[in-house]
Design a protein that fits this description.
Largest sheet: 7 strands, mixed
Helix content: 10-25%
Order of helices and strands: EEEHEEEHEEEHHEHEHEHEHEHEHEHE
Number of helices: 11
Shape: globular
Radius of gyration: 20 Å
Structural class: alpha/beta
Number of strands: 17
């Protein structure tokens, strides 16, 4: 029988999230039922809940940074057992047949991955995310959370962590490389930690120096204010890899000018307007401008193990469910250091 669970739900773009009760599907042969302990608040949740990306199917329960404990397993599950610490990220299914899926790059599924929320599952029912007390997910889309990292600090890694880990690994950040992270926010702060642990020389490029002490504490070797024009002169041709975590429309030409020979600027932020990329800024120094989108299940598992090994977790502020709407406002105002995490034990029904 489907199970009723407590959740917080968005019912319209201009309405606050409210407590409710939703049904999770009956446990299938390969399903894992997860008792959610913590759910991170990602800016994507806010965009979706407020209809800012124009494709929200209301009502929807946001949340794709999910950490908890296995409560039950289907009869054919082999990867997990009751009591295991697990997490779920941005998607809960994919076609499982295309070249991307077979290569472990399910996030690039040709037919489209099934989002953890605001999507439709194989059963024809809408998916609902982690602002809830439990979720049922196929075992192949669940990751184990190693000991050595708290479930609360691990939750944001299921989105923010893999979003940074994947490009850092793909573009081979490590000893002897110079990496710059644009923005020290919910994404950027995790990127600094991971890049430092990979052995790269890490620079933070932030609008101001107000987070300088935090940046150095998190592992940055250098910290510069992009509001200072001298920054772009001093650091010209400096970096092998620049990762932009900011969703604002930046003067990309100026940032491309900071790349060394064969350097790459990777775009993670999703700005409101199209990005202008001058051709000359790319042709000089044989520079590249690229994008990246989360990571596959195997790489997400690798990221979690790497973070546990190096003592990396998100910098968090744990909140109760009745603070979700306030937290949304604070995220928009950049008033959080650096990720809100909901304690789902505080969830109650309507």
């Amino acid at each position: 029988m489907p199970a009723a669970v407590h959740a917080y739900i968005a019912t319209a773009a201009d309405q606050p999230l409210v407590p409710t009760t939703i049904e999770r599907r009956e446990l299938g042969p390969n399903d894992v039922s997860i008792d959610i302990a913590f759910a991170g608040i990602c800016h994507s949740d806010i965009h979706t809940a407020r209809g800012e990306w124009g494709r929200t199917a209301y009502p929807v329960v946001p949340g794709h940074e999910i950490a908890g404990v296995v409560g039950a397993v289907g009869p054919e599950v082999t990867k997990y057992k009751v009591g295991d610490r697990v997490g779920v990220g941005c998607f809960v299914d994919s076609c499982r047949e295309c070249d991307a899926c077979l290569a472990g790059e399910e996030q690039h599924c040709v037919k489209g991955m099934t989002g953890t929320y605001n999507a439709v599952g194989r059963d024809g029912q809408p998916t609902h995310g982690g602002y809830s007390t439990a979720i049922v997910v196929d075992e192949n889309y669940v990751c184990g959370i190693p000991e050595g990292i708290g479930l609360d600090e691990a939750a944001p890694l299921l989105c923010a962590g893999i979003t940074l880990y994947s490009p850092l690994k793909h573009w081979k950040a490590g000893p002897g490389t110079k990496v710059a992270i644009i923005g020290l926010g919910g994404l950027g702060h995790v990127g600094v930690k991971i890049a430092h642990a990979l052995g790269a020389e890490v620079t933070v490029l932030s609008q101001s120096l107000k987070k300088l002490e935090d940046g150095l504490r998190l592992g940055a070797d250098h910290y510069y204010a992009t509001s200072d024009p001298e920054t772009f002169t001093k650091l010209r041709n400096e970096f092998d890899l620049i990762i932009n975590t900011v969703s604002a429309n930046l003067p990309i030409k100026k940032y491309l000018g900071l790349l060394a020979l064969n350097g790459t600027l990777v775009e993670l932020g999703l700005p409101e307007h199209p990005i202008e990329v001058p051709a000359f800024a790319l042709t000089f120094n044989r520079r590249s401008f690229a994008g990246s989108n989360i990571g596959g299940i195997a790489e997400t598992q690798e990221m979690l193990e790497f973070c546990a090994e190096h003592g990396i977790g998100a910098e968090i502020e744990v909140i109760s469910a009745d603070q979700i709407n306030e937290a949304y406002e604070r995220v928009v105002a950049s008033d959080v250091r650096y990720r809100f995490v909901i304690d789902t034990a505080t969830l109650t029904g309507a």
